[in-house]
Amino acid sequence: MNWHNESITRKIGGLSTVLLSFILIVILYSIIKLLEIGQEMREVARVDIPLTEVLAEVEILQLEQHLLMEQVQLHQIKQNPQVNFEMLKSNFQSFSKKLDSELSRAISLISNGLESGQISQQINEHRQALEDIKAYQAQHKVFQQDAGKILLSSIDGDTELANWRSLEAQDSALDKFAITLLKRIETLTEDIAKNAEKHEREFLAINTALGVTAFFTGIYLTTYIISSFRKRVSSIHGKIESLQESITKREPLSIFDKAALEEPAGADELTDLANDINQVMSKYSEQMTNRYQLEDQLIQLATTDKLTGAFNRHKWDDCLVNELENAKRNGAISLLMFDVDFFKKVNDKYGHDVGDKVLIHLSELVKQHIRKADKLFRLGGEEFAIIVRDLDVIQASTMADKLRGVIEQTLEDGLPRFTVSFGVTQFLKDDDVDSVFKRVDQALYASKNAGRNTVTTL
């Protein structure tokens, strides 16, 4: 008989036939504690950790759904014919259905766990979590209904824009709700795991006492069983502890190498549990990696102008402060500000859609003729700015004049010819954000007063 691979119950049963009768009570206590630990670990592995996995998936789906909303809004504003709007709506509906399916799965996990008795720790907290998930599902269904109506219309008008903003507010509320749910389940998992750890220490203490009491009659079997059991429990405990740390820090399980996730040898209950935890850890790490990728995309959306692809005003405010500090330490940094001459006439004569295309074309043209290190910003309307490093005001003025000439000579099919006016200045030693911005704005104003399509340096 391969004793090492036998179940824990049979190992303890075999040992009980060897040990003296006076330790029978201790053995029974050990079995009870072992079953209790197994129940707690199974609850973590089969209910709470899968529930955390499902809610993490819900949070990721919520982020993906938010990205799709941004893509739909971007398509509506730019009216880009290369974007398949119907496919965007279909993907949006698909994500919504998948999210609803995951919520139903979470509800089923808790409900089945409560009915079957798998959930034996913090039952009231699990019931409250169940009610919260149901409430979240109800809110999401309302969001699906509203989204289905709004996605069928354009967002150009004031009413449609207000409806879209209302939908975005619902989406943000669902994001916060999903994060709150995930944190609550993570806290439940941590508490149960800590309780299991406490019972584990108690159980190990009893087994140590058993080894001392039965030293002469069962030293070999006791030592062998405890050593093998402690190795398995220590491995499982290490995995759960690492998973707890990852959940707390909200980071992928990058600390695990291939050897740590290898399938453990043996055929007992702890081996099965270790295999289940390995699978959960792998899936969780993959989902966290995907989540960070989505967060990076959201950050890009938050700092980029949706129409032109240039950095937006929010990014401008941050960069201006940083570049001012950099100028004080590292030397020349210049600022170029420009806008389209008579842009209102372009909108009035050709329409706002053509005006938008002019701004898009202008942004693409400028990006082609500036250095990779230079940063282009859209400050609002037809007003743009460029921050350039390692160029003094004279060099920056030359750069602005070249851009002005390129724009003036460019002719694009379907777009009217247009010119731009530039204001140029350099970060000075005593400058702050307000002073340098005011000076470059004055330079741009001077170019407009000088007849436009010109460059003024201050």
UniProtKB/TrEMBL annotation:
SUPFAM superfamilies xrefs: Nucleotide cyclase (SSF55073)
Keywords, ordered alphabetically: Membrane, Transmembrane, Transmembrane helix
Cofactor section: Mg(2+)
Gene3D superfamilies, per database record: 3.30.70.270
InterPro entries per record: Diguanylate_Cyclase, GGDEF_dom, Nucleotide_cyclase, Rev_trsase/Diguanyl_cyclase
Enzyme Commission number, as recorded: 2.7.7.65
An annotated Gene Ontology molecular function: diguanylate cyclase activity
Transmembrane parts of this sequence: 12-32, 204-226
Enzyme class: transferase
Domain GGDEF: 331-458
Catalytically driven reaction(s): 2 GTP = 3',3'-c-di-GMP + 2 diphosphate
Protein name, entry field: diguanylate cyclase
